[in-house]
Every structure is written in C-alpha cells, then in structure tokens.
Amino acid sequence: MGFLAHDAALLIVVLILVLRCAGGGAAAVQASGNVTIPSTATLAHCPKMCGDIIFDYPFGIGTGCFRDPDFEVICNHSTQPPRLFLNDGDTELVDGISFSLPANSPGLAVAFSRSIPMISDVDVYNVSWTAPGRSFVASQIQLNFTGCDFDIYWLRDIDSRALVCAVTCPSEGITETIARQSCDGIGCCSSTFPTGGISSLKFQFVRRNSKVEGQARTEGKTNRSSLWDRISVETDFMLLSWGVVLDQQPDCAAAAKNKTSYACVSEHSTCTYELNGIYPSYMCKCRDGYNGNPHVLGGCLPGYNPNPQKVNCSRSCGSISVPFPFGLEEGCSAREEFLLNCTDAVNSTLMYGWDQYVSEINVGKGIMAISSDAFPVFGTLYAQSTATQDLHWAVANQSCQQAQQDISAYACVSANSTCLGVNSTEKFVSNTYVGYRCKCVDGFDGNPYILNGCQDIDECETTPGICGGPCHNTVGGYYCTKCPGKTQYYDTTKKQCTQAKRQPSLLFGIVIGFGAGFGILLLGLSTLLFANRWRGEVEKKQRRKYFLENQGLLLEQLISSDENASDKTKIFSLQELEKATNNFDNTRILGRGGHGMVYKGILSDQRVVAIKKSMIIKQSEINEFINEVAILSQINHRNIVKLFGCCLETKVPLLVYDFVPNGSLYQILHSATSSGFLLSWDDCLRIATEAAGALSYLHSSASVSVFHRDVKSSNILLDANYTAKVSDFGASRLVSIDQTHVSTLVQGTLGYLDPEYYHTGQLNEKSDVYSFGVVLLELLLRREPIFTSESGSKHNLSSYFLWEFKTRPIKEIAATQVREEASEEEIKSVASLAEMCLRLRGEERPTMKEVEMALQTMRAKRFKSYQAAHENGKEMHGLIRLRAKDSSDHSFAQVGYSVDQPSQRWCSLEQEFISSGEVPR
C-alpha cells in the first residue's frame, strides 16, 4: 500500500530525464538507422567524467555518445561533487566504467535508496526497484533497512514471500546513521541476496506493534529521530552486470554479420555469447595480449609497453635486483602485472600481490622465485613449476609469430635476442601455451628487454682453460689455436705458451714417480684425517653458531627459571633428531604444510614424536619464536598436542611434538579411503567440545593469550582413542593481557578465513571462533569448506549454510547420518551455535569459552537421555555407535563400546563424560 519517495536530488534528475527525451530518441534512431561506427575521433566531443567518476563508450552523455538508450548516463550537477546515474535517473554509479584491463565479467558498482514516510494507521508498505533496461541484471546485492518495529519480506512473486529480517525500536535519540553502523536488528537490519540474474526487487514492510506505536506518536515526543517516522532502504553493495542484448541473432557469429549493429568493433576484439544472466546477449573483450575498449575502433591496444614511461627508476629492493620489464613504481614496468612492491628495503622484502614473497628475478631464464604462507593466486601470464616454487612468466599471451607482427609492442628489443614460447608446467595440464618471453642468443648474456641489453660473453675470461691452449674471443663466440714450435705448455695464469722442459732419464723418472706416489699417498691419508677432523670442528662450530643465533642461551634461561614446570621442555641436539629420523629420510615424511615439513621420529627412550622443519624465517623473528616455544612448552592440556622441545642447532629451529597416530578430523570426515568408518554423532559432539575447550584454554587460561590463526579440521588430530588434539601453531600469535587484537599479514586457509580479519588485518580471538564455526558445519553437513555441488559449481560452505539456514529447515541440509543419529533439537542447537560463530562482525560472535559451555550443555542433555533410556531398560543401538562401511571389519570395541552388553556401553559413556569435566586447565 506504500508509495516510493525520492530525495530532492533525485527529483532534479527526473526533470533532467524529461528534458532529454528528444536526445534519447535521436540516439535510438541512430542505433537503428545509419550508425556511425564509434572511434576516438567520433567520440572526441563526448564527456568522459562526472565528478570523480570516469566512464567510456558504450556508456555516454548526449546524442551520439552512447550505444542505445540503455547505456545513456546522467550527470547530476546539483550536488557537490556531481553524481552519475544510469538512464533511469535512480540507479547511481559509485565507481567508474573502465576498460583498462581485460574483463571476463563486466560489472558496475551501483547504489539506490528509498525513503517512505510512515502514515498513522497504515501497517503495510511496499518498496521496489527495477533494473534500468533489459541490458542489466543485478548479480550481488546487500541492502540495509532502517525503521522501527517492522518485519521485512522479499516478494519473490505474487503468491510467495520470504522473511528477510526484522527491526525493533532502539533507544530514543538514536539516529539512522548510528543504527546503520551496527545494523544488528535494532533500528537497522541487513540482508544479502543470492547472486544471479535479478532484474527487479520488491519488498513489503509489515508493522508489528502498530497500536503501541500509534499511541506513542500521539504523545508528542520531540527527541526522536526520523527512525520513528519513516522506513529507509539503502544499498551496502550492489553489482550490476551488463551485456549487449541480441534481438534476433542466435549467437556471436550471426551478430557479427550485421556490421552496422555489431558492438565489438575494435580490430583485436572478440565476442562471448550469453554472459551475466542476460538472455540473449553477448559481451565484447580484447583478445589475449591486448587491453582497452573493444567497443571503439582501435580501442584494443597491446598490453606490453617495451619503453618505460619514467626515467631514473629504482631497480633494486635491498639485495634483490628488479630488472625491466619488472618495476617498483608506476611507469617503470612494461605492464601492470609486472609491478612489484618493495615493502622493506632493509630486509630485502619484495612482494608480488599481497602474499607472495619474491626472492629472485632471472630475466635470462624467465623465472621468478617466490614463497608464500597463503593460497597462491597468479595471473594468466604466470605458470608455476610443479617441482619448485618458481614462476615461469611470459611478457604477453601471444605466440612469437603474433608478437613480431607488431614491432611497436614487441618485447625483444635488444640486438642478439630471440623469442621463446612459455608453456604451463602445472600438474594435470599438458603443454598448455601461456605466451612468449625473450632471451639472449648463445654467446651473449644480459637483459633482452632493453636496448643493447644482450652483451657479448668473453668465454676466454669466464672459462679459463676452455681451449687447452691460446683462446681468442669473438663477438658471440671464440676460437682456439695451438702453441707454436717447442712451446707446447700453456700457462692459464699467465695466458701464454712456455718452453717445454727436457725429458729426464727413464730410471730417474721411475724413482721420482715412486717417491712422488708414496708421498702423495701419505699426504692424502693425512689430509683425509685432517679434513674429517676439521669438518667435524666446522660442523660443531656451525651448530654452536646457529644455537647462539637462535637465542639458545635465552631459551635455556627461560626453561631453567620455570620452577613450576613438571615436565620441562628439552633442547635436543641435531644428532639426536638425525638418529631419530634416520637422517631425515624421505620415507619418514608425515606431511607437508604451509609452514614446513613434518617427519616421524623415534627417540632413544622409544617415544614416537613428530618433528617439524619450519620454512625459513627472518632473524628478526627469532626472539618471537623463542618466546613462543617457552610459552607453548608450559601448555599442559589433554586436547593440545604436547610440545616436547626443540633443536636450535640448524638455521631454522626444529620443533618436537607428541606423535598423534590417527590422522586428522578432516581425513575421517572427507576422505573416502583414509579411515574406512564414519564418526558417530556422539563422537562428533565430543571432538567438537574437546577442540573448543583447547581453544578456550589458549585464549583465556594460558599465561599469555594465544591466537591460533589457522583453526581447521585438518589441524584437529585424533590420537589412539580418537581424542581431539589441536595442532599446528606455525601461524599462531601471542598476545599480552592488555591487548585486544594484533595487526598482522593476513594468513589462513580458504574456507576458514575470518572475513573481518581479511579486510582489516587485525587478528583477535573471534577470528578463531569464526574458523571453529566452519568446523562445526563440517561435522553437521559433512561437506568440505570449499565443495562442489551436484551441478558442478563451487560453493563456500559458510555462505551456503547461512543462506540455506534462512530459507530451509535445518534437518533438510544436515548430513544423512546426522539426521539418523541426532535429535532435531540437537541439530538446531549446533546449527544456531555455528551461525553465531560465523557472524560477520567479530563482536557479535561468542567467545570460545561460551562455545565450549554450549557444547558441554548439549552433551549433558544427551547424556541424561542415555541415562533415562538405561533406567527404562531400553536398547541404545541407535544412540551410541560407530558407523562402519563394512560392519564385519569395525566393531564398537574400537571406542570402548560393546554391542552385546548395553550396560557396559552406558558405563563407558558415563566414564568418558565425567572424565572430560575433570581435565586440568
């Protein structure tokens, strides 16, 4: 029953729309009649900017400046700065329209707003938004709704509506701006809508407390804000996808035949059919190797610039050389993808992107050596080696033949250089062509990407004795000659031939030979003995050097000063660990991770341990590492992997942990071959409770708070009794009591990473809570954090759950085994707990202590149901079990339960439940 209302600026835009009708019509006639193919010359008079927003054809202002009426834009100059709207005068562009880089899915960042005045005795209001033409659909939408005591419904169609969210009245004096900052349901609520081709949105607002509100209005309150007088809708984020709509043509090939209406007019452009959910439609993009605007003649330009635009560019980051075509500043690289960032010149910290550390760039071999603590993401010009972390790069996605046809953009500018193809070496990809690179021809060395960069190699100087006689260098090669006459001996030091000596007598030669041989034998044995002793001393000194550099004395002092430690951390020698791992044999490798490699070892006292060799760390991080070892060594919790000690006699310290034999929770939940059985619902609740207790201990009960930063199911290990053991503190950070967060480089695992931590870089205890929420979803839904649906599309587990949890009963999305073993109340409780852990704002999430207590409460309720069933003499085969793929291979005895003796089974559960509450913290 409500009506749309717009602000004063929008009314001005509507007036502009009325006044421009004639111009729009002219553009439409032009589109259907004699079309002038757009070029830089024909569009020279067209505006390209409105305020701070830049746009380009097919969008435009004025006759002849846009493709058809859908793409006309309006610049509202009544505001400062001016604002840019699409043709409806309602949908505002909040970011520019650029073709500077290739676009696989063109999208416009837009916004719209609605404000509805509330009328006495009117309880239902309607709001709608429609895409500004058939060329557009909304693909990503997040809206904020402000008001007082309303339920907001999404009207999907005439007979169907879904509750989006609800708002309650805040305290008096709270403004819309303040309510929108938290948008937690008090005065404001927020909702995200699924991606896809949405051409319109319709919402209905239903007042819940109309009688009370109406009475309050009559009291004449004057200190209330507009929250009590109107309903507002604003976009938090909205992406509008667009394409060129086809009228009759069935595909790109047919559309290209009509030269007067075909949109992809640039020489190096191509067409992609039916993208963005607009049917039927196509989009234009520049071919591989070209960037720019495909809708304009000559708009697609080569993506490589062989001449740097800036002079006096810096070409080093500390000790790392950064040669052209790479650069450290705008205008110093050949293309944007080759722009690197020197974050710390003193420590030679060179970055590609936000998480790739570059240690070397070899232009001759076309290799960039990188290392990363996060999931690597590379552009189309890079191919990663399967054997190393090196990146093989190309200067453009073209073949050598294609590149040489445009000499102005050809990268191999140095004389004596040549062009080579670059193929992908990714696993499971066979000989996939990436592009081309340059190298100096044989006999030359240097940088083929700059003029005169390939210089002659003097083989006679670089390889002394290459000829065995006189050597003569030439441009690109060398040649050899023999020593003349009796001067048959060539002295490589003096670089000249010398006179040959007279041959001694045979007997004299034999005596000299035997003497020399015996002397050489004695000398060799003496040298060997001396070398072994010297090598041992050198290794001993080297180990001592590493021990001191790794602050071994400090760690010894920290350990010895801890009088309360019952089982002190041991500092192992390298010899002990080499013996325990058979000199770090490859057969002893348990796994490779983002922070190092783990070996299985057997100590002299027959303890089985896991020995972790970490990746190279900076010298500046050694003190922090020692402090972490000292703190973690004091952690004595049954659900945290015990740290036995460390070895400081290597460049990178080694850590020695207790060996956990039954793998990880991830392997049992998601691997079809690793375990051969499935965990029961009782085991899942127990493991979740144990892991939550361990994280709670780290956050609040340890002497110094520890943020794990990489909580995931693969870091929850299971011992011989399937007891949870939280592991892998390679990414953890220690926090003093007075700190609420720490700022760090973002690290974590895709699917588990806290969005708030990702955007702010500020780590706090709630980041671990978010990751633990994903683990709860794995136990409840039995899906991986990034999983592939039956349709073949990839989904993020947390996003999938949060959307489905709003629209479907939780029992429909829970795993089949969970539905069979758990009660509906338990499933709802775990789902609600996971939803609270996954909230976008960390302050809205519970603490790990609260999560642990909630899980303990669930287990207590379940235990009481077991006890009641036991007292009533009921069978509990459906309550306590370990499901096996083959029941003949796995019995309940594996976890202390007996199939034939229900009373023993109940007692085992009772003992396990009681013992879990008596664990020392």
TrEMBL record:
Limits of the Protein kinase domain: 584-855
Residues reported to bind ATP: K618
Signal sequence annotation: 1-26
SMART domains, A to Z: EGF, EGF_CA, S_TKc
Localization per record: Membrane
Swiss-Prot/TrEMBL keywords: ATP-binding, Disulfide bond, EGF-like domain, Glycoprotein, Kinase, Membrane, Nucleotide-binding, Serine/threonine-protein kinase, Signal, Transferase, Transmembrane, Transmembrane helix
GO BP terms: cell surface receptor signaling pathway
Bilayer topology: Single-pass type I membrane protein
Key word Ligase present: no
Membrane-crossing residue ranges in chain numbering: 506-531
Source organism of the structure: Panicum hallii var. hallii
Gene Ontology molecular-function annotations: ATP binding; calcium ion binding; polysaccharide binding; protein serine/threonine kinase activity
Record-linked InterPro entries: EGF, EGF-like_Ca-bd_dom, EGF_Ca-bd_CS, Growth_fac_rcpt_cys_sf, Kinase-like_dom_sf, Prot_kinase_dom, Protein_kinase_ATP_BS, Ser/Thr_kinase_AS
UniProt GO cellular component terms: plasma membrane
Keyword GTP-binding assigned: no
Protein name (record): Protein kinase domain-containing protein
Pfam family, one: Pkinase
Lineage of producing organism: Eukaryota, Viridiplantae, Streptophyta, Embryophyta, Tracheophyta
